Amino acid sequence: MGLVVSILLFFVSGDVIYAFGRSKYNEYLLNKTVEEGTRPKIDISDDKLVSRPLVVERLKKILQPDRDQSYYYLICGEHGTGKTTLARIASSEVGCGVIYVDIPANLDELGEAFGKAINFALEKVSVTGQWLRKIKSDDAPKLSEWGKALKAFRHASEVYKAKHDKPMVIVYDNVSHLVQENPKILDILQDDAKHSADDRKYIAVFVCSEGSVPRRMESRSAWSRAKTPVMEIGDLSKEESMKYLIKKRNIKEVDANKLFDLVGGRIIELKTVADDFLAGKEFEIIKQQVLDKVEKKFQSAQLLPNDLYYEVGKSLISDLLKSNELSFLAFKKYFDKVEELNEVLGSNIFAYHPEKNIVTFQSRSVESYIQENANLFNMH
């Protein structure tokens, strides 16, 4: 019996020393990372990168708060507008005091994403801990990993502010993944951002696609500490788009105009059609590919003839073609149930813009599809 106790004491004391050492090492790594900033990499070559200096400068101001700032930020933009690239550029250029967390699509990897962002070595279960788990059959919840990283981040924010007399910043990119899979995590991060803004400890910046994320965040009491109006990152202007197509991609002006008229200034779509055009595809083939892709969105949204939302969709499309935008209240009046509104608004046919509280078509390519298929929607 005495031998067993001695062995247990040996392992337990070893675990205590290991835990203490790991804690101190984590603290050192975290403070070092905060001082230097995450500085995320930009995986786009200079010849393909579209410069948007005004947007980057606006983001950099957000990432450099003053000592008494008491609010957090929400930055929105449709998928393909370049939000992530711009957020990474601004975070990298500011550097010191900015931590960038890329929320993964697979939330099982959330703890790893937090740990990677703040250089935080996630807990490894010790020998004693493994024995105890076998005895208790107690599996730690996956959320505990990112929770520990967030707790460590709070502590680091106090150290940083004491040294620099201003709060540090944490950027949560791609938070749309949270609202789809586990909105409670988004709620926790928003609540923590609100409390931290109250205490002037750190400033959170949420980056998301327009849609259900801003509507959910706006509906909660923690929204009281959000900076309004919300910043939106939109499409490239025609001038920016033409500069990209002509100077960056070496496409003739007449052809560049056709491509822009088809997909507008959505950079991800511009890049795709430019790639196809330079690969030798004829414009009409490219156009049909774009329209086929949009038609699948209409099909998924149940907005085609004989579909569930076809009639209400026709009315919405007609009104938007007349005015280009609808107030959110006007859009909402078309639906009897919130679930129906959310389903249609989340279908990538229409887009909600929190900055102005309006609804528009989601993209130029959606408008192109409607114009090409006017007979489907009784448009003449």
Automatic annotation (TrEMBL):
Domain ATPase: 56-272
Name used for this protein in its record: P-loop containing nucleoside triphosphate hydrolase protein
Alphabetized Gene3D superfamilies for the sequence: P-loop containing nucleotide triphosphate hydrolases (3.40.50.300)
GO molecular function per UniProt: ATP binding; hydrolase activity
KW 4Fe-4S (keyword) present: no
Keyword NADP: no
Keywords: Hydrolase, Signal
Source organism superkingdom: Eukaryota
Signal peptide as annotated in the record: 1-19
